[in-house]
UniProtKB/TrEMBL annotation, chain A:
<dbReference type="InterPro" id="IPR039796">
    <property type="entry name" value="MIP18"/>
</dbReference>
<dbReference type="InterPro" id="IPR002744">
    <property type="entry name" value="MIP18-like"/>
</dbReference>
<dbReference type="InterPro" id="IPR034904">
    <property type="entry name" value="FSCA_dom_sf"/>
</dbReference>
<comment type="similarity">
    <text>Belongs to the MIP18 family.</text>
</comment>
<keyword id="KW-0159">Chromosome partition</keyword>
<dbReference type="Pfam" id="PF01883">
    <property type="entry name" value="FeS_assembly_P"/>
</dbReference>
<feature type="domain" description="MIP18 family-like">
    <location>
        <begin position="38"/>
        <end position="110"/>
    </location>
</feature>
<protein>
    <submittedName>
        <fullName>Protein AE7</fullName>
    </submittedName>
</protein>
From TrEMBL, chain B:
<dbReference type="InterPro" id="IPR024687">
    <property type="entry name" value="MMS19_C"/>
</dbReference>
<keyword id="KW-0677">Repeat</keyword>
<dbReference type="GO" id="GO:0005634">
    <property type="term" value="C:nucleus"/>
</dbReference>
<dbReference type="InterPro" id="IPR039920">
    <property type="entry name" value="MMS19"/>
</dbReference>
<dbReference type="GO" id="GO:0097361">
    <property type="term" value="C:cytosolic [4Fe-4S] assembly targeting complex"/>
</dbReference>
<feature type="domain" description="MMS19 C-terminal">
    <location>
        <begin position="700"/>
        <end position="1106"/>
    </location>
</feature>
<keyword id="KW-0234">DNA repair</keyword>
<keyword id="KW-0227">DNA damage</keyword>
<dbReference type="Pfam" id="PF12460">
    <property type="entry name" value="MMS19_C"/>
</dbReference>
Length: 158, 1160
C-alpha cells in the first residue's frame, strides 16, 4: 500500500442546496413518484471519500448530471470522476457506490458503475473490476475492505 | 469562652488540606455559627489563629487567611466597629503582597469592601491603601483563572465604591488596569475586564486628563478581542454568552469619544473582512459608537464609512440574490440578511448625524450615478442582465433608506433624482388638469423604463413612509411647502396617468411580473398620499379606482396582477378610512364596493364566482362600513338564490348558493367574530333564515339537495354560535314559532309518539317513513340552532322538543341526535333551575330520553325474546339499542343517537354516561349470549334473526369513536359545550379495564373482533401520556386494533392515528417493557402495514416504527430479521419517495445487527 495520501490536497467544492421536493398532494393517495436522477443522487451524495473527511459531492467525484436512470427498464448508470488520474482509491469509491446503490434501490435494478472516460489512467481495468460481480463479491468478503466501505457509507444514512 | 478547644479543632480541620472538601465546609460552617451566635468575637478568633496566619508553611498560611476571609464573606450583615474594620482591612491589604496566600487576601478584601454602610465599612483611606497595594503587588495575568476573576471583581468593586480615592491614583491606576487586562482569555474574566474599562473611563472624563495618553493602549488591547469569537464549545461557558460579551465590549468601546481615532479605523478594517460575523459586529459597533463619539469626530470618517458601507451592502446583497428571479407578491424576493439590515441601520445613523456631508457623498458617488444612468435605460425587468438587476436593487434600497432618514435628506434626494427620473420616463411637468387626459396615448410600454419606475417607486414610498412615521410620532411635521412636496405635486398628475395607462388591459400581457408589481405599487402609493400634501382631484382618484377595478373584472387570468390590484384596492380602502374625506370615500363606495356587489347575482360576467367572492370579501375587510354594505348585499344574494332553489326549484342556483353560504361560514362570520361588535348582523342572518323557511315550506317544489341543506345548517350554526344569549333567545323564539306552526311535526310527535315497528315493514317503508322535505328542512335548521345555543339560552317547551328529536334521530337524522346531545350537555341541574318552574332540568331530560317507552310494538309475533320481556307493548331506547326490535336500521340509528347523547353527558362529566357505555358494551357482546353458531347463520343467510347484525355491532363499536373524538359539527368550544377538563383521560381509564376484561371473557370471535375495534377507537383519541402509562396492558389490544382497522379502506385515518399511538409508545421510556413483551407481534403487525396500499403515511410511519425495534436485545429480534428485511426490501420499490427513503434508513438499521454482505 502507498503510505501517505494519494491526493493530499483536493479541491473542495460547495455542496449543492438540498431541494425540497414537493410531494403529491394528500388528495391522491395512489400517485406514483418514480425513481429519478435526483433520488439516486440523494442516495450517494453523502458517501464519504475514503481519504478525506469530505463527501463525494463536495469533491465533485459525482454529480447529478452524471447519473442515468431508467425506472421502467430498472437501470442505473453512475459515472464518477476520480480527483486525480492515478487515484488508487477509484476502485474503493466505485465499490462504495455499488454497495450503497444495491442497498438503497429495489432489487429489480441493474447497477452500472463507470469511471468517466479519460479521467483515470487504468480506466478499463477499473471499469472491468467494478462491474464484475464475482470480483465485487470477493472484495466484500475481505473484512478490511468491508470495514472501509462501511465507514464511507455511514454518513449517507443520516 | 468555653469553646476554644472546639474552635481549635474546627480550625485545624479547615486548614488541613488532607481533609475532604465537605469536612472543610462543615468546619467552616461551625466557625461561622460560633461567631454569629456571639460565642466568640472576630478578634478572639484572629488571635486564636495567630500561628496559622504567621506560619512559614505556605499552605497552612493560605488556608488560615482563607478561613478568615470566608468567614467575613458569610458575615456581611454582622456589624463591625471601625477599629476591627481598620485592622482587618489592614491585614488583608498587607497580605496582597503574599502571592502564596493571595486567594484569602482577595476574598477578604472583597468581603470587607462590599459591606453595606450600616454595618461598618472600609474608610476611604483604607480603600486607597488596598488599591495601592493591589497595583503594587499583584500580577494579574500570572494568576489562575479563579484568582483572576477575584482580582477583577476587586478592581470593579473599588472603582464602583470609591471612585474618588481610586481616581486620585491617576496614571498608576490606568497603567495597572491596562496591564491586568492585557491578554485575558477567560470569558467571564473578560466580561469583568470590559466593565472595568468602561467604569475606568467614567473616572477620567477630562479629555486632556491622564487617560488621554493611554487611549491608544487601551483601545489596542480591546481591539484584540474584536470581533468576539468563541472557539470553545458552548457547553462549558454556558453562563457567559457571546452576545453578553460582545455587548460589554461594545459598551467599553463606546465609553469615550477619545477612542475614536483608534476604533473607527479598526471597525472599518474588520468590515472589509470576509467573515460575516466580523461584518455584522463592525456594523453594530459603528452604529452604537457613532452617536457617542459625536458628529464632529465621525465627520472625519464619513468618506471611509460610506465606501465600506456601500461595499458591504453590495456584496451581501449579491450573495443573497440567488432567489432574485422568484417573483412573489412581496416584490423582488430579496432576503435581507443580518449584514444588510445592520448596514442600513448604520447608514441611517450616520446620515442623521452628518446629513449634508453624507448625502453629498452619496449623490456624488460614481457607482450610484453609473448604475442610475445605465439601468434606467432598460425597458423591462427581464431585459436587464442579472448583475445589473442586483446593482439596481442595491441603489434602490440605498435611495430608500437615505430618503427616509429625515426631511432634509428627503428634499435633497428628491431634488437631485426625481426630475431626472421623470425625464427618463418622459413625463412632463403638466400642471393643468386639462393636460392630463392628453396623456391617454401614453401607453407605449417600452418608454416606461423599468429601472426608472423602480427607483421612482422607491423614492415615493420612502417619502410616504417618512410622512406617515412623522404623523405617528407627531414630531417635526412636514409642510406642503417642502421642496419634495412641490416637486411631487408638479408631476403627480402626469405620473398617475402614466401608471394608469400602462396598467390598462393589453399592456400587461407583454410585461414581466416585476414590472407589473412596481406599476401597481406606484399607483397605490400615489393614491394613498395624505390629502394635504398631495391633493388629488376626485376624477383622478376615480380614474385610479377604475383602473384597478378593470383589472379585477377582466384580468383574472393573470393571477399576480389580479392579486396585486386587489391588495392595492384594499390598501386604498383602508387608507380612506384614516383620512376621512367624504368625496373619496363615496367614490370608493360607488366604484368599488357597489360595482362588485352588483356583479354577484348575475353570472354573466366572465370573472369566476369563487374569485368574485374572494375579491368582495377582501375589499370588505378594508373598512367596517364597506363590510356591512357587502354583507347586506351578499345576504340578499344568498336568500335570493336559496329561494330560487327551494321555491322555484331552479337547481342551477344550487352551486352559487353553496358557495355563498361557505363564504359566510368560512370568511365573514369569523371576521365578525374577530371584530366582536357586529352581533346585529348575525342576528339578522339567523332571523332571515327563519323568515325564508316559511316561504320555502309553502312551496310545492321538492328539492333533494343534501349539500345545500348542510351548507345552510353550517352557516346558521356559526351565526347563532357567535351570538349573545339575548339574541339567541330571540332566534329560538322565532324558530320555535315556525316549528310549532308546522303541524305535521309537533302534533304527531308530542301526542302520540309511536313508530310502527314491523320486522320487515319498516325496511320496506323506509322512504315514506322519513319526514317530508319541508319538515326535514325545518327540523334540521332547528337542530342546528339548538346545537349552537349557549348553556343559559332559554329553550321553550323542552319536553316537546326532546320528544321531537328522539323521534327524529331514530329515523336517521344525525343532527337531531347531535342536538339532543347538546341539550343534555347544556341543560341546567335541578338545583339551579328553580327560576322557571316550567323548565325541564337535566335529570328530567335524561329520564325522558331513557325511560319513556313510546314505541308501541304493533306486531306481537316479533320473536320469542321480545315477547318474553316486553310482551309486545312498549320498548325503551336502551332496549331498542340492544335489539328487542328486529329492525337493523332502527337499531343502528338508536345506537348512533345514544352515542351523541352519551357524548353530551361525557363532556359535562355526568355519571349517566356509564349507563350509556354499558348499553353500548351490551350491544357489542350480545351475540355471545346467543352463541356463535347463530352469528354464522345470520352472516350466511343475511336474514334478520334476533342476534345483532354485524353492522349494528360495528356501529356500537364506532359509537366509542363518537364519544372520544372531537367533533366539528357540535359539542365543541365554538358551540359553547360544557367541557370538563381531562374528560378523555377519565373515560379512557374507566372504560379500558372493562373492555380488556371483556376481551378476555369473550368466547365469540366476532364479538372479540368488535371489542378490539371499540378499544382501538378509544385508544387513538386518548391523550398519549395516559396510554403510555398503561402501555403494558394496552399494547396487545392496540396491536389487534391495528389489524382490525387495516381491513377497511374507510378506516385509514383511524389506522394512522392508532399507528401514531404505537410509535408514541415505542419512543417513550415507559413503553419499553410493553414493547419487549410484544416484540414479535409488533414486528409482524408493522411488516404487514408496510404494504398497506391506501395511505402513504401509514407505510412511512410503520417503517419508522421498525427502526427503534432494531435496538431491542439481539437474541429477541434476530429470528425476525429476515422477515423484516424482506418486507423492507419490498418497500424500497414503493411508489412514494418518502417511503423509499425511510426504507433505506430502516434497512441499514436492521442490516447492521448481523451479516454485512451487500444484500444482507
Amino acid at each position: 500500500m502507498v503510505s501517505g495520501l494519494i491526493n493530499a490536497n483536493p479541491v473542495v467544492y460547495e455542496k449543492k442546496e438540498r431541494r425540497v421536493r414537493s410531494a403529491p398532494s394528500d388528495a391522491d393517495e395512489y400517485a406514483v413518484e418514480s425513481i429519478d436522477q435526483q433520488e439516486v443522487f440523494d442516495h450517494i451524495r453523502d458517501i464519504k471519500d475514503p481519504e478525506h473527511p469530505y463527501s463525494l459531492e463536495e469533491l465533485k467525484v459525482i454529480s447529478e448530471d452524471a447519473i442515468e436512470v431508467d425506472d421502467h427498464r430498472s437501470y442505473v448508470r453512475v459515472t464518477f470522476t476520480p480527483t486525480v488520474e492515478h487515484c488508487t482509491m477509484a476502485t474503493i469509491i466505485g465499490l462504495c457506490l455499488r454497495v450503497k446503490l444495491i442497498r438503497s434501490l429495489p432489487s429489480r435494478y441493474k447497477v452500472d458503475i463507470r469511471v468517466a472516460p479519460g479521467t483515470h489512467s487504468t480506466e478499463a481495468a477499473v471499469n472491468k473490476q467494478l462491474n464484475d460481480k464475482e470480483r465485487v463479491a470477493a472484495a466484500l468478503e475481505n473484512p478490511n475492505l468491508l470495514d472501509m466501505v462501511d465507514e464511507c457509507l455511514a454518513p449517507s444514512y443520516e | 469562652m468555653a469553646v476554644p478547644s472546639e474552635l481549635a479543632q474546627h480550625i485545624e480541620s479547615y486548614v488541613d488540606t488532607s481533609r475532604s472538601p465537605t469536612q472543610q465546609a462543615t468546619s467552616l460552617d461551625a466557625v461561622i455559627s460560633l461567631v454569629k451566635n456571639h460565642l466568640i468575637t472576630i478578634e478572639t478568633l484572629v488571635r486564636e489563629m495567630e500561628i496559622y496566619l504567621t506560619t512559614t508553611d505556605n499552605v497552612i498560611r493560605a488556608r488560615g487567611t482563607l478561613l478568615i476571609a470566608e468567614l467575613l464573606m458569610n458575615l456581611v450583615s454582622k456589624p463591625l466597629d471601625n477599629v476591627t474594620m481598620h485592622s482587618l482591612i489592614g491585614f488583608f491589604t498587607d497580605r496582597l503582597a503574599d502571592w502564596r496566600a493571595l486567594r484569602g487576601a482577595l476574598v477578604g478584601c472583597l468581603a470587607l469592601l462590599r459591606r453595606k454602610s450600616n454595618n461598618g465599612t472600609v474608610t476611604a483611606s483604607d480603600a486607597k491603601a488596598v488599591a495601592e497595594s493591589y497595583l503594587r503587588n499583584i500580577q494579574v495575568q500570572s494568576l489562575g483563572q479563579h484568582d483572576r476573576k477575584l482580582c477583577y471583581e476587586l478592581l470593579e468593586c473599588l472603582i464602583e465604591r470609591y471612585p474618588n480615592e481610586v481616581a486620585s491614583l491617576g496614571e498608576n491606576l490606568i497603567y495597572g488596569i491596562c496591564e491586568a487586562v492585557d491578554g485575558e482569555k477567560d470569558p467571564y474574566c473578560l466580561l469583568r475586564a470590559f466593565h472595568i474599562i468602561e467604569a475606568l473611563v467614567q473616572l477620567f472624563p477630562d479629555p486632556s486628563g491622564p487617560l488621554a495618553s493611554y487611549c491608544g493602549d487601551i483601545s489596542e488591547n480591546l481591539g484584540l478581542y474584536f470581533p468576539i469569537h468563541f472557539t470553545h464549545p458552548n457547553g462549558e461557558e454556558a453562563d457567559v454568552k457571546r452576545d453578553d460579551l460582545s455587548r460589554a465590549l461594545m459598551l467599553a468601546f463606546a465609553s469615550t469619544p477619545l477612542f475614536e481615532p483608534f476604533t473607527v479605523p479598526l471597525f472599518l478594517e474588520k468590515l472589509s473582512s470576509p467573515l460575516p460575523l466580523a461584518k455584522v459586529d463592525s456594523l453594530k459597533y459603528l452604529s452604537y459608537c457613532a452617536p457617542n463619539y459625536g458628529a464632529d469626530r465621525m465627520a472625519k470618517h464619513a468618506g471611509a464609512i460610506w465606501i465600506s458601507l456601500k461595499n458591504a451592502i453590495s456584496t451581501s446583497m449579491l450573495e443573497s440574490a440567488k432567489s432574485f428571479t422568484s417573483q412573489s407578491l412581496n416584490g423582488l424576493g430579496f432576503e435581507e440578511n443580518e449584514i444588510t439590515t445592520e448596514a442600513f441601520m448604520l447608514l441611517k445613523t450616520v446620515l442623521m448625524q452628518n446629513s449634508d456631508l453624507l448625502s453629498s457623498l452619496i449623490m456624488d458617488d460614481e457607482d450610484i450615478s453609473t448604475t442610475f444612468n445605465n439601468m434606467t435605460s432598460y425597458g423591462s425587468y427581464s431585459d436587464i442582465p442579472l448583475q445589473g438587476k442586483q446593482r439596481l436593487h442595491v441603489v434602490g434600497r440605498i435611495l430608500y433608506i437615505t430618503t427616509k432618514t429625515n426631511i432634509a435628506c428627503c428634499n435633497r434626494f428628491f431634488e437631485s433624482f426625481f426630475p431626472r427620473l421623470m425625464d427618463i420616463l418622459e413625463i412632463s411637468k403638466r400642471n393643468s388638469s386639462g393636460g392630463c387626459f392628453l396623456d391617454e396615448n401614453y401607453s407605449l410600454a417600452n418608454k416606461f423604463h423599468f429601472g426608472a419606475v423602480y427607483l421612482c417607486v422607491e423614492l415615493l414610498s420612502a417619502y410616504r413612509d417618512l410622512i406617515m412615521e412623522s404623523r405617528v410620532t407627531a414630531t417635526d411635521s412636514i409642510h406642503a411647502k417642502e421642496a419634495c412636496c412641490c416637486m411631487l405635486q408638479r408631476f403627480s398628475l402626469s405620473l398617475i396617468n402614466a401608471f394608469c395607462s400602462t396598467l390598462r388591459t393589453g399592456c400587461n400581457k407583454v410585461s414581466d411580473d416585476v414590472d407589473i408589481y412596481f406599476r401597481v405599487k406606484g399607483l397605490q402609493i400615489l393614491a394613498t398620499f395624505p390629502e394635504d400634501l398631495l391633493p388629488i382631484s376626485g376624477s383622478i382618484f376615480e380614474n385610479i379606482l377604475r383602473t384597478f377595478m378593470s383589472i379585477i373584472l377582466v384580468d383574472f387570468n393573470h393571477i399576480l396582477l389580479w392579486k396585486l390590484a386587489l391588495r392595492a384596492l384594499v390598501h386604498i380602502g383602508t387608507f380612506i378610512d384614516t383620512c376621512s374625506r367624504s368625496e373619496k370615500a363615496s367614490s370608493f363606495m360607488a366604484i368599488v364596493v357597489e360595482k362588485i356587489l352588483s356583479l354577484v347575482p348575475f353570472d354573466e360576467s366572465t370573472l369566476p364566482f369563487s374569485l368574485k367572492l374572494e375579491a368582495i370579501f377582501e375589499i370588505g375587510t378594508s373598512r367596517q362600513s364597506h363590510m356591512l354594505k357587502i354583507i347586506r348585499g351578499l345576504e340578499e344574494s344568498v336568500f335570493a338564490s336559496l329561494s330560487d332553489v327551494y321555491v322555484h326549484g331552479n337547481l342551477r342556483s344550487v352551486d352559487m348558493a353553496i358557495q355563498l353560504l361557505e363564504c359566510f361560514s368560512n370568511k365573514i362570520f369569523p371576521w365578525i367574530h374577530g371584530t366582536g361588535d357586529l352581533e346585529e348582523v348575525l342576528l339578522r342572518f339567523a332571523i332571515n333564515v327563519w323568515n325564508h323557511v316559511k316561504s320555502w315550506t309553502a312551496s310545492d317544489v321538492q328539492v333533494q339537495e343534501k349539500g345545500l341543506l348542510d351548507a345552510t345548517m353550517m352557516a346558521t350554526k356559526l351565526a347563532v354560535g357567535s351570538c349573545s344569549e339575548e339574541s339567541q333567545n330571540i332566534i329560538i323564539q322565532k324558530a320555535y314559532s315556525v316549528l310549532s306552526s308546522n303541524t305535521s311535526l309537533i302534533v304527531k310527535e308530542s301526542t302520540t309518539t309511536s313508530i310502527p315497528v314491523h320486522p320487515e315493514g319498516l325496511q320496506l317503508t323506509r322512504q315514506t317513513d322519513k319526514f317530508s322535505h319541508k319538515d326535514e328542512c325545518i327540523l334540521l335548521l332547528f337542530a342546528s340552532i339548538i346545537i349552537a345555543a349557549r348553556p343559559k339560552t332559554h329553550i321553550p317547551n323542552v319536553r316537546e322538543i326532546l320528544h321531537l328529536f328522539i323521534a327524529s334521530f331514530l329515523k336517521g337524522y344525525v343532527s337531531s341526535a347531535q342536538a339532543l346531545g347538546s341539550m343534555i350537555n347544556k341543560l341546567g341541574l335541578k338545583s339551579n333551575g328553580t327560576e322557571i318552574s316550567s323548565d325541564c332540568a337535566l335529570e328530567e331530560a335524561i329520564y325522558i330520553i331513557f325511560n319513556t317507552k313510546p314505541w308501541n310494538s304493533y306486531n306481537n309475533s316479533v320473536s320469542g325474546q321480545c315477547e318474553a320481556t316486553s310482551n309486545g307493548i312498549e320498548i325503551g331506547l336502551s332496549d331498542l339499542c340492544v335489539g328487542y326490535v328486529n329492525n337493523r336500521l332502527l337499531q343502528v340509528n338508536a345506537i348512533v343517537g345514544l352515542a351523541w347523547i352519551g357524548k353530551g353527558l361525557l363532556l359535562r362529566g355526568h355519571e349517566k354516561v356509564k349507563d350509556v357505555t354499558m348499553i353500548l358494551l351490551q350491544c357489542l357482546l350480545s351475540d355471545g349470549s346467543t352463541g356463535a353458531s347463530k352469528l354464522k347463520q345470520s352472516l350466511l343467510e343475511k336474514t334478520c334473526e334476533q342476534d345483532l347484525h354485524p353492522s349494528v355491532m360495528k356501529s356500537a363499536a364506532d359509537a366509542f369513536h363518537i364519544l372520544m373524538s372531537d367533533s366539528d359539527d357540535c359539542l365543541n368550544q365554538k358551540f359553547h359545550a360544557i367541557i370538563r377538563p381531562l374528560y378523555k383521560q377519565r373515560f379512557f381509564s374507566t372504560v379500558m379495564p372493562i373492555l380488556l376484561s371483556l376481551v378476555v371473557k369473550s368466547d365469540s370471535s366476532f364479538s372479540r373482533y368488535m371489542l378490539y375495534r371499540a378499544s382501538a377507537l378509544v385508544i387513538l383519541d386518548a391523550p398519549l401520556i395516559v396510554v403510555v402509562s398503561e402501555a403494558k396492558k394496552i399494547t396487545p389490544i392496540l396491536l389487534e386494533g391495528l389489524s382490525v382497522l387495516s381491513e377497511d379502506i374507510v378506516d385509514k385515518e383511524k389506522l394512522y392515528a392508532l399507528l401514531l399511538v404505537l410509535s408514541g409508545i415505542l419512543t417513550d421510556k415507559n413503553g419499553q417493557e410493553a414493547i419487549m413483551e410484544n416484540a414479535h407481534i409488533i414486528i409482524n403487525r408493522l411488516t404487514d402495514l408496510i404494504s398497506y396500499p391506501h395511505k402513504m403515511l401509514v407505510r412511512e410511519t410503520a417503517i419508522q416504527c421498525l427502526v427503534p425495534m432494531s435496538k431491542l436485545p439481539y437474541t429477541m429480534i434476530y429470528p425476525m430479521r429476515t422477515q423484516v428485511l424482506q418486507a423492507i426490501s419490498k418497500a424500497l420499490d414503493d411508489p412514494r419517495r418518502a417511503v423509499r427513503q425511510e426504507a433505506v434508513r430502516c434497512r441499514q438499521a436492521w442490516a447492521s445487527i448481523a451479516s454485512r454482505s451487500p444484500h444482507f
